[in-house]
Design a protein that fits this description.
Layout (H helix, E strand, L loop, with lengths): L5 H20 L5 H18 L1 H25 L12 H21 L4 H25 L7 E2 L13 E2 L1 H20 L8 H21 L3 E3 L6 E2 L3 E2 L2 E2 L1 E4 L6 H22 L1
Antiparallel strand pairs: 1-2, 3-4, 3-7, 5-6
Helix pairs in contact: 1-2, 2-3, 2-4, 3-5, 4-5, 4-8, 5-6, 5-7, 5-8, 6-7, 7-8
This protein binds zinc ion.
């Protein structure tokens, strides 16, 4: 039981303190983002183990690097949000992985591999979605909306492109290589994890195109996912008010994880 081992508790706290300082310094997370990331990291480190924590850190670190590169190359305006991640972003990406670790710990499931697969598919979906967004923004042409395949402006929720899928596949491969290297999962589970991550990422696009709230700016006329644009409250044109990009992320990660477990049980 690693949770009751004081040494592991100490290791977790020291590691989290260091990562918090680095994240603040490099402006990867804002203060509330750091506060939200501490309980999530702590749960995964102490209840799951250091290998599971490394997987989350890998996702977090590489996503942040990808975002920084994109911002340097083409600027921050495409997604109309700051590149410093907030608590909403942290919870959207971290709640499902942390919940899987907690339920695996509480139920003491005999098939530890199922917890590992569900966890890796959750992190895989989050990572695939992030890399798809960042690499997709570098696509030279206009992306297409996943529902009707019409060309849309870059950064539109639900927009897909070949670059996006290359990003998603790359994320899946990275998750597989590291999880296999760390001994969390065996080679037979890797296709399931990649498939579930890509399906999860696609569900994210479908939800983004359908139920996510979209607004039209009253000043510049642009369709945006943020409620406020050009300093004014924008008009809602479609979707549900309470479904923002973070809710969509959370739902897609949950779906990716469930799909991986279903695939493992049925195949
Ligand atoms: Zn505007």
């Amino acid at each position: 039981m690693s949770f009751f081992n004081p040494l592991i508790q100490l290791e977790a706290l020291v590691t989290l303190a260091l990562i918090s300082i680095i994240s603040l310094r490099l402006r990867i997370l804002d203060r509330k983002g750091v506060l939200a990331s501490i309980p999530i990291g702590y749960i995964i480190f102490t209840l799951g183990g250091v290998e599971y924590f490394i997987m989350l850190l890998l996702f977090f670190g590489l996503s942040s690097i990808a975002t920084k590169i994109r911002v340097k190359k083409i600027g921050a305006n495409f997604l109309e949000k700051d590149w410093v991640r907030s608590w909403r972003n942290v919870l959207a990406n971290g709640l499902i992985p942390a919940s899987i670790i907690i339920s695996g710990y509480l139920s003491q499931v005999p098939c530890k591999s199922l917890v590992a697969i569900g966890y890796l598919a959750a992190v895989g979906t989050a990572f695939a979605d992030t890399l798809a967004t960042e690499i997709g923004l570098l696509y030279p042409k206009k992306p297409r909306l996943i529902t009707n395949l019409k060309q849309v402006v870059k950064g539109t929720p639900g927009a897909i492109s070949p670059y996006g899928y290359i990003g998603g596949i790359l994320a899946g491969l990275i998750i597989c290589a590291f999880s296999y290297g760390l001994g969390i999962t065996d080679i037979s589970a890797l296709p399931t994890i990649i498939a579930a991550s890509l399906i999860g990422m696609t569900i994210d696009s479908v939800l983004g195109a359908t139920i996510q709230a979209k607004y039209r700016c009253v000043i510049c006329g642009r369709i945006t996912e943020s409620r406020v644009h050009c300093g004014e409250r924008a008009d809602k044109v479609s979707g549900f008010e309470f479904v923002n990009t973070h809710i969509v992320n959370l739902m897609a990660i949950f779906a990716g994880s469930l799909i991986s477990i279903a695939l493992t049980i049925w195949i």
